Amino acid sequence: MNGARHRQWGGGLAIYAFAYLAFLYIPVLLLPLFSFNDSLFIAFPLRGFTTKWYAAMAADTQMRAALWNTLKVGATASLVSTILGLLAAKALTQSAPLPSRGFVLGFANLSLFIPEIVIGIALLILMTSVGLPLSLTSVVIGHVLICLPFALLVLMSRLEGFDSSLEEASRDLGENAWMTFWRVTFPLVLPGIIASLLLTFIVSFDDFMLAFFLCGTDTTLPVYIFGELRFPYKLPNVLALGAAILIASAALIALAEWARRLGAEGAARDRVIGA
Amino acid sequence: MLLSPTTALLLFALAAPIALLVLYSFWTQSGFNVDTQPTLVQYATVFTREGYRTLFLRSVAISSVVTLVTVALAYPIAYFVAFRVQRAKFTWLLLLTIPFWTSYLLRVFAWKVILGFNGVINSGLISLGLISRPLEFLLYNPTAVVVTMAHTYAAFAILPIYVSLEKIDRSLLEAAADLGDGPFRRFMRVTLPLSLPGIIGAAVLIFVPTTGDYVTPSLVGGSDGVMIANLIQVQFGRVNNWPLGAALAISSMAAVGIIAVSVTQAARLAVARIR
Amino acid sequence: MEGSDFIRIDKVTKQFGAATAVDGVSLHIAKGEFFSLLGPSGCGKTTLLRMIGGFAFPDEGRIVLDGADVTDLPPNRRPTNMVFQSYAIFPHLNVRDNIAYGLRVERMSAGERNARVDEALAMIRLSGYGERKAQQLSGGERQRVALARALVKRPKVLLLDEPLGALDKRLRETMQIELRQIQRDVGITFIFVTHDQEEALSMSDRVAVMEKGRVLQVADPKTLYERPVSRAVADFIGTMNFFEGRLVDLSNGKATVETAALGRVEASMPSGGTFAPGARVLIAIRPEKLVLSHEQPEAPFVPGKIVAASYLGDRSQIQVSISGADTPVAVVTQTSTAFRDGEFVYISWRSGGPLLIAE
After folding, report:
1. Cβ pair C102:A166 closer than 8 A
2. Residues near C348 by Cβ (< 8 Å), separated by ≥ 6?
């Protein structure tokens, strides 16, 4: 009796779950759908198949410049935030907890709890106050800030399952601190590092709000897209671009999650067997 | 020592800008320059100007509704993945997070396209012959903002709730059943209280950034959907009154902080009464 | 450097915040010895071992190893190697590379390295296991790999931090024998940390019993069992009955003690310590040194009543309540005679059973 009700509940939940997935995906999938539609207007019924919007997109030199800027910013921000995150995560997960652990962690995650607009205007004020011109560099600084919580999240969960006696064993067997990092710590944390690089790259690539305030004249792709949204005749180009971005970032994320799981499962397995 | 680069970045790129922002809020704008004579005049404007108060209250109201709706929609799905999905957990989580990582700007834009006067829903319904004239209530109102944000911030709700549900020791549920609780009472007395940290985390992670989101209101909100962040943004753009913008940002951040902390505490107290 | 000065631990103290983990410990360990540090968790034994290995550094005192002061050297510059409690098998390397890990530091030829690894694999009887990953090994196999990885470095001292703690009882007993055999074969000094007194007694040449950061007694297993110097040592090693009393006479190596529970008892003197007639002392008697009978034996004896009897197969453990003692007396008997709950019995003791211990 109880079991039957259970199954009924479970069935209802499953239906809800698929409905929710539809809610998440339909809006997103409309972009690729209409990007092949031969009409300036994004409306039903569909008018026929075309790839001309993709051709127009590829020919758009401004867009290409913006894309290149975004890639440069993303690569730099992800690398810097992952390195900083790795150093900090290493310090924060040491077996003897630092007295400042809670403080630093809270501080690093603070940017998650401050509206991005506030971070954006605050950095804008800082840049003008110290007389630095707005450029891709200022965008990178802002992005490293908002990427740091994600890098820390991924790397700390990887390092938390890390048995510190592995490093001690390496020292005991004659390796110095640097070689111990290279031969033991790095290979074991590598899945986390890859996941962190990919995730932070996406966070940076996707960011509009900070870049809007900080990029000056060096437009990044989201800022460029935001500008294009004002011109109805450019919408199909944006759709084509959006579809391309969707596919690329979905692939990157799947890759990042895969790397993270790989690491997490490895760590969990080691713990189970070590226990 | 490993923490010093991160701490340096946080001091330079987070603490210093926020401190400057606070300073700015006590200054005044005169033409293109800033008068650094300390004054409370900006805060006086923030709190007394009629339109600002309405705008502020509406922002809090919209963000609150978004938070409630998003968490309420996300809880069942997180529950489903944590308790009902057996083998494909990873796939489900991946499916649920991929839209979150794909261009925020494009997702908001997708909703504009869906809900618009000549948009997907209207054109779809017309071509199906269900309506003869486009529905006008879909776009450019607070409801459109809520729907869009419930979509764009979904992952912020799903992931923390999922983590807290997944952490619940399954033997606790068996114990509750063993002691006589049916599925519903067991959920109310064990599952819900134990997942509260996830719910609170989700609520804060949605409430805080949505109050600072000016993209969604400006794309789908119309004049009734304008939020405080739009007002802050124009102070740094068109209006060029940075001190007023700073005061608006600081006041809204303080208010958001106070609301978040007090609601969190109230929720904790309420759930602590569940025996 | 022969003799008992191979390892000299000299007044070593280590504090963690306000807590003193190791408190002025001095020990001398001989070359080739199997030496155990025994004590309850938190007694400082692991901290002491980690200071010998270079994973912690003393606040005071020196550690001298084969004539060289190693007190401040990092682990990679000490002639010691460690078998970790968690084994610390590198999960990204296979068995062979785990064992070769330390040899690669020494930059020897690949041929020699392989030979050394093969030899080590043979020693731990895992010759076919070289290509396996850590995850594919059982607990006992991981333990052996950790041992081989440390021994292949040919350390002067091997440190073992509760290496058998994670294994089940039967495997633990097998590994105890195997470990002792390997130690005899390689002739390396072993310092072994454990909280299991049976393990320490059965494997070691000598044992240091520790409590609250201090060494209570250092002795060979037989002395430790038969001549504990304090109540704490006697309590920690095996079961012991204690009776309070007053020393009335000291003559030719024997002490006479007046106790409330047993009357007048003749006891052996411990090796150390000075006693004066009239002092309050303890009489300690092992359960197997007591004799139980239904009929009245020759004096001295005390009458009592059985409150609990547990049958353990080859022997029985009987709890007997006697007047003048707060807690029942534990007696171990052969199972030839049956004793039951509630029976009235007589307790007598073998000569040489009672020990004198300072209170």
Report:
1. no
2. C290, C291, C293, C297, C298, C300, C301
CA-wise closest residue to C307 among C345, C333, C259 = C345
Nearest alpha-carbon partner for C99 in C122, C76, C80? C122
DSSP B177: H
| Shared-domain flag, residues C203 and C261 | no
When divided into structural domains, chain A yields a total of 1
Domain stops at, among C231, C259, C282: C231
pTM listed for this prediction: 0.76
User: How do beta strands C189-194 and C157-161 pair?
Assistant: parallel
CATH number at residue C171: 3.40.50.300
Residue in B105, C54, C193 with CA at minimum distance from that of residue A173? C54
Minimum Cα–Cα distance from B156: chain A residue = A112
Please, are residues C275 and C250 in contact by the beta-carbon 8 Å criterion?
A: yes
In a domain, A1, yes or no: no
Contact call for A142 and B212, based on CB within 8 A = no
Using a 10 angstrom Cβ sphere, with 0-12 exposed, 13-18 middle and 19 or more buried, the burial of residue C295 is exposed
Q: Given pLDDT bands bounded at 50, 70 and 90, which one contains residue B130?
A: confident
Please give the C-alpha separations between residue B253 and each of A70, A118, B67, B156, B210, in angstroms, as whole numbers.
29, 8, 16, 19, 12
Helix%, strand%, coil% for chain A, nearest 5: 80, 0, 20
Length of chain C: 359
Q: What is the least distance, in Å, from the CA of A218 to any CA of chain B?
A: 17
Sheet holding C329-334, edge to edge: C290-293, C344-349, C301-311, C315-321, C329-334
Q: Note the pLDDT tens digit of each residue in C192-247.
A: 999 999 999 999 999 999 999 999 999 999 999 988 888 889 888 888 999 999 98
**Residues 83-122 (B) with a CB less than 8 A from some CB of A:** 84, 90, 92-99, 101-107, 109-111, 113-114, 116, 118-120, 122
Contact by Cβ (8 Å): A24, A17: no
pLDDT digits (tens, 9 = 90+) for C297-356: 887 889 999 998 888 888 888 999 998 888 899 998 886 678 888 889 999 988 888 988
ipTM over 0.90: no
Residue A251 phi/psi, 5-degree rounding, is -65, -45
Domains of chain B: 40-274 (1.10.3720.10)
In a shared domain, residues C227 and C336: no
Residues C285 and C219 in one domain: no
Tell me the residue range of the domain where C24 lies: 2-231
Nearest CA-CA distance, residue B269 and chain A, Å = 23
Rounded to a whole number, what is the distance in Å from the CA of A179 to chain C's nearest CA? 9
Residue A185 forms contact with C (CB below 8 Å) = no
Asked if C204 and C35 touch (Cβ cutoff 8 Å), the reply is yes
- Whether A72 has its CB under 8 Å from any CB of chain C: the answer is no
Rounded CA separation C224/C227 (Å): 6
- Give one word for B124, left, alpha or beta, with left for phi > 0 and alpha for psi -120 to 50: alpha
pLDDT in tens, A87-101: 888 888 876 666 777
- Beta-carbon separation of C88 and A169 below 8 A: yes
User: pLDDT band at A54, cuts 50/70/90?
Assistant: confident
- Whether residues C191 and C243 share a domain: the answer is no
Domains held by chain C: number = 2
Instruction: Tally C-beta pairs within 8 A across A and B.
Output: 224
**A46: in domain:** no
| Terminal-to-terminal C-alpha distance of chain C | 40
With a CB-CB cutoff of 8 Å, which residues 212-241 of chain B face chain A? 212-215, 219, 229, 232-233, 236
Asked whether the CA dihedral C282, C287, C293, C294 is positive or negative, the reply is positive
Whole-number Cα distances in Å, B89 to A153, A262, A270: 20, 14, 21
Using DSSP's 3-state secondary structure scheme, residue C323 falls into coil
CATH classification at residue A191 = 1.10.3720.10
